Amino acid sequence: MNKVEAMRLLSKRILECRLCRLWENRTHAVPGEGNLDAEIMFIGEAPGRFEDLEGRPFVGAAGKLLTELVEGIGLRREDVYITNVVKCRPPGNRDPKPDEIRTCSPYLDEQIQIIRPSIIVTLGRHSTGYILSRVGISTTGISRVRGRIFKVSYPPGINVIVIPTYHPAAALYNPKIKDYLKRDFHLIKRCLSEVRREDKKIGLEKFL
Ligand code: URA
After folding, report:
1. What's the alpha-carbon Rg for the chain, to the nearest Å?
2. 42 C-alpha to ligand 1 centroid (Å)
3. How far is the CA of 44 from the centre of ligand 1 (A)?
4. What are the pLDDT digits (tens) for 162-177?
5. Which end of the chain has fewer CB within 10 Å, C or N?
């Protein structure tokens, strides 16, 4: 099955999902959006009010900042893939509960399998905790791991670079966090150049 069809079927399952309590209050589930061949995948926490209304990820104020940061490193929003660990809005924007993350995260795993990004950027502690825990790394807070590069194998056998950073919502009223985010995005840009150089080298070696 090709990627487009695989993602269409997965999104349909997400839109109809009733596996945890969050479906009861949602307007729309929010599967994610972007380029299915994206080199970079951004993973947030869960939809907020505007995302729930529109059925699209990161369309509110935090989304505007995320789009600016993506454009700041020379990419367009359409070049990357954007999703969340939890696909439905928790009431009142509360934190997702551990059982909600447990129930919903297999959808994220399937999305990663379909897209196979070279770089996964986790935005905030929930997506960072989830992705790093999947590769056996335990975290004690986002500030300890942000701006670091984790070269891991995920799904097993597939090399991927994980770069945790702050959630853009945390930067909206905190200039210090916004500075850290900008720095982390420069790191993302450097890693992307590196990945592209490696891919070109491998491509050439195959050709020679
Ligand atoms: N915050 C998130 O984590 N995800 C969204 O889609 C919007 C806000």
Report:
1. 17
2. 10
3. 5
4. 999 999 999 999 999 9
5. C
Q: Is the pLDDT of residue 206 over 80?
A: no
Residue with tokens 């994220």: 108
Q: What is the pLDDT of residues 112-158, one digit of tens each?
A: 999 999 999 999 999 999 999 999 999 888 999 999 999 999 998 99
Confirm or reject: Cβ of 62 under 6 Å from ligand 1.
Answer: yes
From the CA of 204, how far away is ligand 1's center (Å)? 39
Ligand 1 contact, 34 CB (< 6 A): no
Q: Where are the alpha helices (DSSP H) in 122-167?
A: 125-134, 142-145
Query: How much is the pTM?
Result: 0.95
CA–centroid distance, 94 to ligand 1, in Å, is 12
Confirm or reject: Cβ of 45 under 6 Å from ligand 1: yes
Which two structure tokens, joined as six digits, stand for 53? 């209304």
| Domain total of the chain | 1
Mean of the per-residue pLDDT values for the chain? Answer: 96
Q: What is the pLDDT of residues 114-123, one digit of tens each?
A: 999 999 999 9
Is residue 166 in contact with ligand 1, taking CB distance under 6 Å?
A: no
Comparing CA positions, the residue from 94, 92, 102, 152 lying closest to residue 122 is 152
- Domain holding 151: CATH number? 3.40.470.10
* Structural domain boundaries, residue 90: 3-207
- 48 CA from centroid of ligand 1 (Å): 6
Distance CA 131, CA 122 (A): 8
